[in-house]
Fold:
Amino acid sequence: MASKQQMEKMMERQNYRNLWHTDLMHAISADFPYCCFATFCAPCASYMLRKRALYNDMSRYVCCGGYMPCSGHCGESHCPAFCLGTEVCLCFSNSVASTRFMLQDEFSIQTTKCDNCIIGFMFCLQQVACIFSCIAMILGSEEIQEASQILSCLVCACMQTQHKVELDKRDGKFGSQPTMVVPPTQQMSRVDEPVPYGYPPPSHVQDYPAPGYPPPQAYPPQGYPPAPGYPPPQAHPPQAYPPQGYPPQAYPQPSPPQTYPPQANAPLPAQPQADR
Structure:
């Protein structure tokens, strides 16, 4: 059951989309002092990185990160610090690999093809060194084994530097990539404030028209020919209303209005008499 879960987990890591903050080829240039520290004191670096990966909570520690058959059966809950020290000293390669798997599962980080090539070459060289070590017992030559050990130390130092840079990124030690922070306190604006809170002060309004532009002209511009069939434009303001000569002479002038009710003493108009 455990092996099946591990295989499923390995298949899931192939679908991760995030990348390491720095790859193995550039890990030395990313943090050269720590890479030197991880080269000459590799177990100490592995101990510190595992503790940081657990957020300094040793109650969460499991031997080899829970990726080995012996995980959870070594009494880690009673003395996690001692068990971690034993792991990094006796199973150094597994301790580095376990920390790497923990970071990959936490941040969904995939391993690049270049990293896979370097790690695979290291494993192959270790297997070849194991074969040649058996031959060296007969021939007395151990150059291949020493070369594989040197390469393994260098690759593990670059891997631990890569882990350290990723943890620095998680803990917000990069100024350009801050972690989640509490938003600033909001304040309501008052009516008597000339400028609402949180808004920039109004800038000086530029005069119209802007310097360098001609002043606006009247419409239509002077000298513009009027359209045929339209009267010429009149001056402003217009003349008195109604214009002189209105209404025309052909129309009768209206009679003045009479008072209402009509006066009693006013003579009635004469009625025409019919012929007898």
